[in-house]
Design a protein that fits this description.
Chain lengths: 216, 543
């Protein structure tokens, strides 16, 4: 019987070593792209926050710090289950890895559920930007800009979550079917990198949208 | 041209004959076939963009607006720019020649992620179709730069569609850059250290860094334009509290490095061509390698020189002016080193070399006029005039397209296994060179005299120069049609090419033409530095 590593070696690579290195390296480069992608929005947000401190502050005060904090805790928990899943895979406990991945996906869905509840509340309060937006504040324009960035950035984050959850479910099935082993679970590690990255982005989003308006 | 016939390879299957049928192309993960898919697509987009250019030049043959209405003219230059920049120039060399050659030059079987490579082609085509569809529905009139607030409030054209097309195709660029970086890091053949790599690979590495780090900013800013138009919010509209200049900052943070996305691969080709046809190692190899990377790095820090008249602070303008001078240094290093390579070289004037020499001259003119534009006082005088138009066409058309054509001729025997006809290809190189200069040199003069860009009509005293330019464009068009025709001819009827028709160094020449599916029978082990013509004299039959 041939070596299980050889079975998973794709034709373009010479050695399993090379394959492992390339897969992880590629994910890091992809994350560099993602940093620039979100970075552009963070930069634009910062420019307007400096231009309109009062309006942005008013917008930030509308955020539900309770829901935001719960969501942050939820998401960080999902990072823990993801890390445990990778650990299990490296110990060749694939059933457990699969279960932990499904847990991760479930926690991700809880995050999205809370997030969309918040979106609905903003919509009800006429805070969704565009034709739905109504405000009698003297800083209405700046507040609307705040909400544009809020919806755009958390929305993009949510899209990343949806993609992540889909991949996590697929990988859970693959782990259950035994597509990984203790020697080769690099794609799972790459997925883990992506998942942790999306979590970290949320931590920054939480800071700029929720915490910045917390002072009295 | 004399050729060395080494081993007959016609019997063994190559990447073209290994599998047959349309599906074997559409589902291929072979980097060589994907390179050809890209080649067909960028050629298609090149001629679409070329037709727009030709219509503009015809309109400009007379001072009045007679051929097309001013509105149509606005759409013509916008669509010309969008198609040429994003659907031709940016993918042109990296995705065709780069895709085809990088794995071969580093002795790999394929790129690191072959499926991602195919995905990038589909994403690119999808973006292209979206852009073409929005053009067919009525086009866009904002210029390729989409300046706000015109693009977000005042333009009644299909801005969102065009922006979406570019947004989508941006992901193809990102995937290509990611693939190249990982490939160059992880897939090099045994013994092939970084400073043994051909400069083609170095330059594409630098390009890929820009692909990966700059393209997402374009994606974000186009997304913001789409959001502003769709939801009627004021991200960039001053009347609603937005900052239109922020758009320019973000746009040029991508689009200035994008200029280097367009020209670095051209430099990549020229380094190979100059070495091969001078039979010498590139003078100052290490400097040229580092120059590529420093162009990529400094290129990120100069975007503000597009905004000297946009109301930015005078101190930021001085900073950007200074750094724009700095970015000219590595470019100049390259030009000097290519020239020094020619010195005492054993030069042969095959068609690729004609293009390469053309590139060096035209790129120098384009680069030097870039320094005029980096100077604050001069820039204020010539901003948004034909001087700027002429400057960047010298870089993008005189530089990149000359290099693209030169590279296509040089590697055509490897790609197709056939030689192109020598006589007519030399004629085409000369036609392109003359046509190009006749088209764009008068535009320097026009711009300096005050002719603004993007106008369908102009005062009668400019007509002579405009007529010269239009005449040149016609010649240039004919020059571009010639290779299209004889490459098609050569694909079927050209003389069979040997593995190494140019007696060049480089791993891609040590495998049959066309190469087998996995490039090499045996993974090569590299012991020599790049372009080591002295050491390989006898092996290459150059004595």
């Amino acid at each position: 019987m041939s070596n299980p590593q050889q079975l998973m070696l794709r034709e373009q690579y010479g050695t399993p070593e090379q394959q492992r290195e390339s897969v992880t390296f590629g994910m890091w480069i992809f994350l560099a792209t993602e940093v620039m992608f979100f970075g552009g929005l963070f930069m634009a947000f910062t420019v307007y926050r400096v231009l309109y401190p009062l309006g942005f502050d008013e917008g930030s005060k509308d955020m539900s710090i309770v829901l935001g904090s719960i969501n942050t805790a939820v998401l960080i928990t999902s990072s823990l289950t993801m890390a445990l899943a990778i650990h299990s895979a490296s110990m060749a406990k694939l059933k457990r890895a699969s279960f932990l991945l499904l847990t991760t996906a479930f926690i991700g869905l809880v995050f999205l559920a809370i997030k969309f509840t918040e979106y609905y509340q903003h919509y009800e309060a006429h805070k969704a930007p565009g034709v739905w937006f109504e405000s009698s504040s003297p800083h209405a324009n700046a507040m609307e800009l705040f909400y544009v960035f809020y919806f755009a950035m958390t929305g993009l984050h949510a899209i990343h979550m949806i993609i992540g959850i889909t991949l996590v479910v697929i990988f859970a099935v693959r782990a259950y079917c035994g597509s990984f082993n203790s020697e080769y679970h690099t794609p799972l590690e790459a997925l883990g990198l992506y998942w942790h990255f999306v979590d970290i982005v949320w931590v920054f989003l939480f800071a700029i949208f929720y915490i910045s308006g917390l002072h009295t | 041209m004399s050729t060395v016939v080494k081993i007959p390879t016609a019997e063994t299957p190559n990447y073209l004959t290994e599998e047959r049928g349309i599906l074997s192309w559409l589902l291929t993960t072979d980097h060589k076939r994907i390179g050809l898919l890209y080649l067909a697509s960028v050629t298609f987009f090149f001629f679409i963009g070329g037709i727009f250019a030709l219509l503009m030049r015809l309109e400009l043959a007379t001072p009045e607006t007679d051929l097309v209405s001013p509105h149509t003219y606005n759409e013509l230059f916008s669509m010309h720019g969008i198609i040429m920049v994003w659907f031709f120039l940016i993918p042109s060399i990296p995705n065709t020649l780069g895709n085809f050659l990088i794995p071969m030059m580093i002795g790999a079987k394929d790129l690191a992620y072959p499926k991602l490579n195919l995905a990038s082609w589909y994403i690119y085509m999808f973006g292209g179709i979206v852009a073409l569809y929005s053009m067919a529905r009525g086009g866009v009139d904002t210029g390729w730069t989409f300046y706000t607030p015109f693009s977000t409030i005042y333009s009644n054209t299909y801005v969102v569609g065009a922006a979406l097309g570019i947004f989508i195709s941006g992901f193809a660029s990102i995937l290509t850059g990611l693939n190249f970086i990982a490939t160059i890091h992880c897939m090099r053949a045994p013994g092939l250290t970084w400073f043994k790599l051909p400069l083609f690979v170095w330059s594409h590495y630098a390009t890929s860094i820009i692909f990966v780090l700059a393209t997402p900013i374009l994606a974000v800013v186009l997304l913001m334009i789409a959001v502003e138009r769709i939801f009627q919010v004021g991200i960039f509209s001053a009347s609603l509290g937005g900052d239109p200049v922020l758009f320019q900052h973000m746009f040029w943070f991508y689009s200035h490095p994008a200029v280097y996305i367009m020209v670095l691969p051209g430099m990549a080709v020229i380094s190979e061509l100059v070495a091969a046809f001078s039979r010498k190692r590139i003078f100052g190899y290490t400097f040229v390698a580092y120059a590529s990377v420093s162009i990529a790095v400094i290129g990120f820090l100069v975007w503000g020189h597009h905004m000297f008249v946009a109301g930015t602070s005078v101190y930021s303008a001085m900073y950007f002016s200074l750094l724009s001078y700095a970015v000219a240094v590595p470019s100049a290093i390259k030009v000097f080193n290519w020239t020094a390579t020619l010195y005492k070289g054993s030069i042969s004037w095959d068609t690729p070399m004609l293009y390469a020499i053309g590139f060096i001259g035209l790129f120098t003119i384009g680069g030097m006029t870039g320094l005029f534009l980096a100077a604050l006082g001069v820039d204020v005088h010539v901003t948004d005039t034909y001087f700027v138009v002429a400057h960047f066409h010298y870089i993008m058309v005189g530089g990149t397209i000359m290099a693209f054509l030169g590279g296509m001729h040089y590697w055509w025997p490897k790609i197709s296994g056939r030689m192109y006809p020598e006589g007519i290809s030399k004629l085409s190189a000369l036609t392109v060179f003359l046509g190009f200069n006749l088209t764009f040199f008068p535009q320097f003069v026009l711009g300096y005299l005050g002719m603004p860009r993007r106008y369908a009509a102009y005062p009668p005293e400019f007509q002579t120069l405009h007529v010269l330019s239009t005449a040149g464009a016609t010649i240039l068009g004919a020059g571009y049609l010639m290779p299209l025709i004889y490459f098609f001819w050569s694909w079927h009827y050209g003389p069979i090419a040997p593995p190494n028709p140019w007696r060049a160094t480089g791993l891609e020449w040590r495998t049959p033409s066309p190469p087998p599916k996995h490039n090499f029978e045996v993974t090569p082990v590299v012991t020599q530095k790049a372009y080591d013509y002295d050491a390989m004299k006898e092996e290459l039959g150059l004595v």
